[in-house]
Amino acid sequence: MEVPREKDHGDFATGLAMLLARPARMAPRKIAEIIVNNFSLTGTWVERVEIAGPGFINFYLKPNWVYRVLPLILDRQEDYGRVSIGCGKQVQVEFVSANPTGLLHMGNARGAALGDTIASILDYAGYSVAREFYINDSGKQIENFGLSLEARYFQLLGRDVPLPEDGYHGEDIIDTVRGFIDQHGDALLQSESLERRAALVEYALAEKLEAIRQVLQDFGVHYDVWFSESTLLESGAIQDTLNILRERNYIYENDHALWFKASDFGMEKDEVVVRSNGLPTYFLSDIAYHRNKFLRGFDRVIDVWGADHHGHVARMKSAMAALGNDPAALEVVIMQLVRLYQGGELVRMSKRSGQYVTLEELVEEVGKDAARYFFVMRSSDSHLDFDLDLAKAETNENPVYYIQYAHARICSILRQYAEQYGERPAPGEADFNLLREESEFALARKLADFPGEVASAARGLAPQRIARYAHELAGLLHSFYNSQRVITTDRALSDARLLLVDATRITLRNALQLLGLTAPERM
RNA sequence: CUCCCAGUAGCUCAGCUGGAUAGAGCAACGGACUUCUAAUCCGUAGGUCACAGGUUCGAAUCCUGUCUGGGAGGCCA
After folding, report:
1. This prediction's pTM
2. Strand partners of residue A301
3. Cβ–Cβ under 8 Å, residues A520 and A460
4. A136 touches strand B (CB under 7 A)
5. Would you list the DSSP string of A391-431?
6. What would the pLDDT profile of A77-104 be if each residue is shown by its tens digit?
C-alpha cells in the first residue's frame, strides 16, 4: 500500500495484483477485480475503489477524512510528529569532534548542523539520544601544538625562534599565548621545555575548547558529553583494549610495531596500532574510544565524519567486530565536502594560507538559521555548494525565509482573528466539512504526512527530508493563503480555516525546531 | 591500480524500501497588491535521468561494464 504521487490515482493505492500475477498465473487486472469485489466499504473511510492502469487498485477516501488529523495536531501541539519507532533505545551521536587546537571551519559546520539535526530527529522518533564531542587532546598533534605555543611564547617575549615546520601557523594562537603571558608573566622562560609546554597546552586547550563550545552554542548545538581522549590513556582503557585484541588473537608484531589483523575482516591490509617507538596510533585510541561507547550501553552508535575519513569506516567496524561488538551497531554518516561560493566564484580554503571561513564568521555573516538550513537541505553524501550570497539574501531566492515567512503569516492571521473574533474556537467547535477547497485538502493531507516523514528521516538518518518537507508544507500554505481568506464574514468557515492554519503553524514550528531553526512570529 | 561518493531541466538539487505522465528552487518569459504580510501566488517554457547491456509485468531507482568529476588508500589524524 502506498500513497500515489498523482492525486488522480486515489488517496492510497496498491500494486498487489501485479505482484500476484506471476505466482497466481493470472492476469493482474483479473486478480485486482477479485480483490475489489471482495472488499467491503461499510464502516471504512473508503468512498470507492478503482482498478487502473496495468492493475493498480486505487482507494479513494471520503473527502473530509484528512481533517481528522487537525484535532490531533491541535491537541498534541509540540509533540505532533513524535513517533515511537526508537522504542526508547539508547543512541549516541558523535559529531564535529574537531581538533581543539584551531577554529571550526565549513566542514565542521556542516557536521554540526547534520549531527545535531540527526540527533533531534532520532529523539523525536522515540530514541533516547546523547550528543557527544570527542576531544582530541592527546597524541602527536597536541605535541605539535605545544611546540608551536612554545615558539610563540618565545617570540612574544622577544626571542627570535622559528615555528616548527609542521606546527600550527594560525595567528589565533598568538592571542592565546599573549593572554597566557598577561596572566602568568614570563616565569616559564626558566622552566624545562616539557613543563613549559604542558602549562601552555593546558591553558590553550581550555581556552580553545571554551571558544568552540561558545561558537557551537551560538549555532544552536549543545552537547551532553565532552569526552576527552586523554582520559582513555589515563584510565588504561587503551591498554585494556589492546590486551583484549591480543587475547582474541588479532594482534601480532612486525618491524617492532604491533599490528591489528584487519585482513581477517576482509580489509586489504593490516593496520599498525602501536608504533615501533611504543606509542599507540590514533587508530588504537579510536578503537578504545568506540569500545568505551558500547561499554556505556548504547544500542546504536552514530558517527558523523567527513569524506576524507571514509577509509576509516571499514577499519573501525572490523575492530568492533574483533572486540565482539556488532559492527552494524556502529553507523557512520559520511558527509561530502563543502565548497564555498561567493560572487559566483569558488572560495579557495586552506588552513596553510589561513584563508578559510570559520563557523563563527559564517554565523555572523548569514545567521544561524540560514546556515543550518543550507547545511541540512542536501543529502549528506552530496557535495554541498554553499552560496554565501544566496544564504545572506533576504529575498525570495532564499528558501529559509520562504518557510519562516509562512509561519509568520499564520501568526499574523491568528493576531487578526483575535482582534476581530476574540478567543479562538476549540477543535470540537469547528465544522471541518466546510473546508471544500482543493488547497485545503492538500494542506491537511500534507500535515498528516509529518509523522511518517519523521520516521523516514530517522530511518535514513536523512535530515534533508525534513528540510524538504518544511519547504513543501510552506508552499502549500502560501498557495492556500493566496487563493482563500481565513478571516471572512462567515464565522463558521473562518473558524474551520483558522484551525487549519493553526495546525499548519504547529507542524511548521515542529519541523523548524527539528532543524534547529527559529519560527518567527513576525518578519 | 584498489576502494568510497556523485553524474537527473541553463544552474543547484529532491526522488523513501523498483510503480502509473520524472519533481522543486533559482535563472527566463507572461500575469496577480483598494483584500488576513507581494520575503507571496498563478501561468508558460525547459529532460536521451552520463553511456551500453542485463534482471521483470514495470528501472532514475537493482546488477555488470565503460566514461567523467570529487575523495581515500601513512608506524598522520
Report:
1. 0.93
2. A92, A330
3. no
4. yes
5. HH--STT-HHHHHHHHHHHHHHHHHHHHHHH-SPPPGGG--
6. 999 999 999 999 999 999 999 988 888 8
